[in-house]
Amino acid sequence: MNSPDTPEAQAVRVDQINRHVSQKAGLDQELESQVPPRYGSFTVITLGVILAILFASVIWMVI
């Protein structure tokens, strides 16, 4: 059997500690189960203003 001082037993203890820490931090989830962040209102408004300015400049150059 493995005594508590063997490298294998130490590796098992380190793995248990790492698993516990990542579970507490929420890092043990699968990547597919995470929902991507949604754009905030500031980002949507900023992109809308940029698109409106681009659209207006294209129309202004055509006319």
TrEMBL record:
Report the superkingdom from the record: Bacteria
UniProt keywords, alphabetically = Membrane, Transmembrane, Transmembrane helix
Where is the chain membrane-spanning?
A: 39-62
Q: What is this protein called?
A: Uncharacterized protein
Q: Which organism is it from?
A: Peteryoungia aggregata LMG 23059
